[in-house]
Amino acid sequence: MMPFTYTQAADADAAVRLAGGQQAGARYLGGGTNLVDLIRETIERPTALVDVTGLSDGITETDGGGLLIGAAVRNTALAEHRLVRSRYPMLARAILAGASPQIRNMATVAGNILQRTRCAYFYDQAGSRCNKREPGQGCDAIDGFNRMHAILGASPSCVATHPSDMCVALAALDATVHLTGTQGERRLPFADLHRLPGDEPDRDTVLQPGDLITAVELPALPTAARSAYRKVRDRSSYAFALVSVAAALAVENGTVTDVRLALGGVAHKPWRASKAEQALRGQPATEAAFQAAAAAELAEATPLRDNAFKVELAQRVIVAVLGELAESGLAGDGA
Amino acid sequence: MSIVDKGKEAAQGIAQSVMKKAVELAPGALLPGGRPDPLIRRQHGHIGKPVSRVDGPLKVRGAAPFAAEIALDGMVYAALAYSTIAKGRIVTLDTGAAEAAPGVVLVMTHRNAPRLNPPPRFLSGDKAAAGDDSPVMQDDRVRWNGEPIALVLAETQEQADHARSLIRVTYAEEPAATSLPTADGCEVGTFMGEPLRAVVGDADAAFAAAPHKVEAVYTTPGHNHNALEPHGATLVWRGDELFIHDATQAVAHTAWSMAQIFDLEEAQVHVSSPFVGGGFGAKGLWQHQILAAAAARLAGRPVRIALSREGVYRIVGGRSPTEQRVALGADADGRLTAIIHRGVTPKTRHSPMPEPFILPTQSAYAAKTFALEVQTCYLDMVANTFMRAPGEAVGTVALECAMDELAEQLGMDPVELRILNEPEKDPLSGRPFSSRNIVAAYRAGAQRFGWERRNPVPRSRREGDWLVGMGCATATYPYHRMPGGAARITLDAAGHARIDVAAHEMGMGTATTHTQVAADRLGLPLEAVTVRYGDSSLPGVILAGGSQQTASVGLSVMMAHQELVGELLKLAGNDSPLAGLGADEVECADAGLRKLDEPGRFESYASILARSGRSELVVEGSAPMPLETMHWSMHSHGAMFCEVRVNAITGETRVSRFLGSFDCGRILNPKTAASQFRGGIIMGLGLALMEETQFDGRNGRIMNRNLSDYHLPVHLDVPEIEVIWTDIPDPHAPMGARGIGEIGITGTGAAVANAIHNATGRRVREFPITLDKLL
Amino acid sequence: MGITVNGTDVDLPDDPRVSLLDLLREKLHLSGTKKGCDQGACGACTVLVDGQRILSCLALAVQYEGRSVTTIEGVGADGALHPLQQAFIEHDGFQCGYCTPGQICSAIGMIEELRRGVPSHITGDLHATSIPYSRDELRERMSGNLCRCGAHNGIIDAIAETYRANPQPEAAE
Question: Is the Cα torsion angle B595, B597, B601, B602 positive or negative in sign?
């Protein structure tokens, strides 16, 4: 770890002031579950840490029937919240499928969103090339161990995946991110927050230096009251996803009236499966339709040496989760 | 390897075979005509009782001191920088920024490290301890990707870690052998001086002629031990003496080896290691202790070196990958006519042995012909080493999966096929078995597990999305007892006995078990016995490895006990009720000696010592050479039964039930023994389903060097595991007990794979069996 | 203001890089809390902060100003073993003992989560107000604590025995 200063921010404005004053060397610190590790590995080298765990940790209902979640809400607190469990079960399930209870007790919502890839070559600061860590250096993952890596939206410069489970649910739920920055407050659709790597894989998100996530807003979404999250991994708990699926499905008279679908473990960002959703709306809620929708989403998948199985696995899990939602009566009736 | 080294190895082999011939004629305590350990007959003592661990209260309070937790005045902290190429030369090594960083006391590189002798490679001498005999920071050469190139000492760990990150190095890289196709030569491997090769008859011809046959290639990846305690040491020089608080399975070996490296007398090195946070073969002498001692000497300060988890992966070797071809030929009845087990595994020029995967096949089944061989190929990588059941853990994967495949082809029950081929004597050496009750273990296990409910037709049982199947496999691990065992008994006037022995506790329950054994041997209550261990100043050269520690300690204490009885009778003299009795006429009971057939003739230890005016009696005994293994084929055995559920959609495997039925001689403590068995089985579940060291063949770098990417089983992966045992004493082993520490990992991988086949119809021969292989 | 460790106020480190784990082990010599990976992957460093289980290796000590930390050294009362510690001994819920303090602290924090009704990944009904103390629930909730010796069965046995009989909160220490 490089030496750094540490300051606690009383509120968002103070945090932005403190971080802004430190130029590019400042980082916001939440629960520390990813950033402290990255600093120890010398991948992140901040000169100043601004502790933002003093920001809002409240969860409040919005006028429209949605939820406003403070950036400093801990993952456990979000997952156990009664309204999250009843209105957005996929979100509670996704959080509970991630990391370990100890980490969920520490990690904040904003920190979870901004965690970085677990690509082993990204982490190997001393011994491997990585364009995300050192732009222009090259990528040792493309021809190396890439079982955990992306099959969708990758680029020749980066095939890393975003490791969050929670974010897969947020992507499916059309969440909005509240930001404060040097230019004041603004809002951003969650789907637009994370980037695909392109030729700038060092930029995980569209955030500018100094930008601070202050809250995440969930819209009212009746369909989500009956939703699911299925995570497939290499051991039964405490492992990152190979493939995960967040899904909500509304069926009326056998026809899909609404569907929300997002994938984890497959791309540089939480992957909203818009093509599948589009293919499914208005279609009969049958396995054949689910198969076709999944295939539409995965048509452009470009697997690497070790991860071709993810295409088949994602196809199967999408179909299985949608099928369960349709058959078990879990599919929302739109009410 | 140099010609000199080859000559040494050859000489060692010759010496061993000469010794073998000589000892076949020699008598000994556990040999033909010898008297079995009298404790075997004792039924109502402490042995066999589920005694809780004597160090339990310390451990559950976090009060057991581990090596990297000893605080020394003036101590500084070490951090290591590691090479990032597999082979070549260091061209520039800029340590200026590191030296100037806050708190830095020393930056040590090959330029200023003291001159050191090469570490004595394990198995190259009685007390050689090093897992790697490469020179330690003595030149600008790089021998593997991850070799230490610099060490920083600083006042705090944070300062040392930061300074380490400021070191800049450039290399002149040379072509390296980092994959089998680029290997720097291959040859038949050797293990303990013997070639890993066995030929009986013409196995290839017998296989070709066999009416039933299976032939397949099985691969296992590299594995890392991943003891939860990373390697570490806290050490200090006091004058010319070196005191090491170490985490080691070999205190005496380490002390001697460090003395060789630093040109000291053995007595100048003191190694203490009372608690080891898991070893599994990895906690030996590696570069970190040597580098820390060298730096401590340069800096004149005590040093703590606590390897990071990455550091453990970089400098402590693991189990090598294997590629094994097994071919089994059988006659129409299912009797084996040919067993062929050949394959290849990488090692380095500096490691003690190749992964000896043919070992379990040597004594497993009766067959007319055998062809067994381990080819080893030399790579530039971190030195591979012993990991729990080296050879057997992965060898049984191939052999026991192949047996399952043969049973399927024959239409036989896999249990019955194994029983049909049960040998009457060791199929290769021709020696009788000391004790072999594997059939009983199979029968008891099958009944308990409900094996009869298994449907032999694969993929015939489905519960919802889950395919359910059962499999079995044989577990096996040899009885070892290495030379060098010794122990001291100190009996005091209050009737308390202290056992001193240079043994180790890394979770096996050493102190607990030997308290029980010694209490029975001395006729004392448990409270009157203390076992002191884990220090090189204590008697004995006793490795906690090869599942041999219990036998070695047990026999050493037995020999010391014989001395003790003789001394007590001498001290008792003519005024004692014991007057005139010889050692073989008395036994120890009720804190004293009594005549075997006349219990009234008794005198307590306290009385004997008091009358003779002694405050204590100190005796020492040494275990004789381990000749018992020259007369008998001695092995622990087990029958493993597994039930799995495989998700038909995702290929996820969940082990729902597991039972191990063991035949390991007498079980000394059922509580700690069950934990040893379960621990091995759980490591076997990891081997079967998730464990793999990702060695990047492009540059010889281990990529999953942490506990998030190298998957160990978590709680939710581990079902309730049932363990049962025959408890039939082995008359030729001390206490009647063979080793139990390693056998659990053997057979388990195959039992899981065979269950997966039964569940899904899929034969996966490439381990670990991850879900992608079952889609 | 400092930080309270097992009821005693201690100073925060001057160097903000010092983790809560290293503060405990190297500065306070409370080495019962273990370092198994120093990167949040093994659970050996689990401690309780205001009753919640966290990983002290990923916690910068300065972040815990004003908080109350309980380590394994503070788990028992008046030198006596906590009932869970005793159960670990009875059920042989450890071998080498290195992951043990983390397992015990984790289990104590876990039981409070169960009592509070926090669901887990495998909880069937997200809306349930009380969660069964089933073996599977215990196994999932303890999965953040690795054990390499393979004492998993004994650990779950010890937790189940200690808390099934007494599912109510303990009296405050």
Answer: positive
pLDDT tens sequence across C144-153: 999 999 999 9
> With contact defined as beta carbons under 8 Å apart, do B273 and B251 qualify?
yes
Query: Which residue, of B625, B653, B675, is where some domain finishes?
Result: B625
Domain with CATH 3.30.43.10 in chain A: 5-53
Cβ neighbours around A192 below 10 Å, total: 12
pLDDT band at C164 (very low <50, low <70, confident <90, very high): confident
Contacts of B696 in chain A (CB under 8 A): 140, 144-145
Residues B698 and B639 in one domain: yes
Which of B749, B173, B88 minimizes the C-alpha distance to B472? B749
Asked if the peptide bond before residue B768 counts as cis, ω within 30 degrees of 0, the response is yes
Most B CBs within 10 Å: which of A34, A96, A236, as the mutation test of the B interface? A236
Q: How many residues comprise chain C?
A: 173
Q: Are C58 and A5 a contacting pair at CB < 8 A?
A: no
* A134, A125 Cβ separation under 8 angstroms: no
Q: Taking CB atoms and an 8 Å limit, are A235 and B698 in contact across chains?
A: no
Q: pLDDT tens digits for A185-203?
A: 999 999 999 999 999 999 9
pTM, two decimals, is: 0.97
Interface of B with C in 282-341 (CB under 8 A): 306, 308-309
CATH superfamily of A223-327: CO dehydrogenase flavoprotein, C-terminal domain (3.30.390.50)
* Rounded CA separation B689/B713 (Å): 9
pLDDT in tens, A207-251: 999 999 999 999 999 999 989 999 999 999 999 999 999 999 999
Sheet holding A271-272, edge to edge: A227-233, A241-252, A255-264, A271-272
Selection from A92, A72, A90 nearest residue A82 by Cα: A92
If asked whether residues B451 and B519 sit together in one domain, one would say no
CATH number at residue B633: 3.30.365.10
d(CA A246, CA A261): 6
For the segment B322-328, the average pLDDT, to the nearest whole number, is 98
Note whether ipTM > 0.90 here: yes
Q: A-chain residues within 8 Å CB-CB of B690? A: 234-235
Chain A environment of C119 (Cβ under 8 Å): 79-80, 85, 92, 96
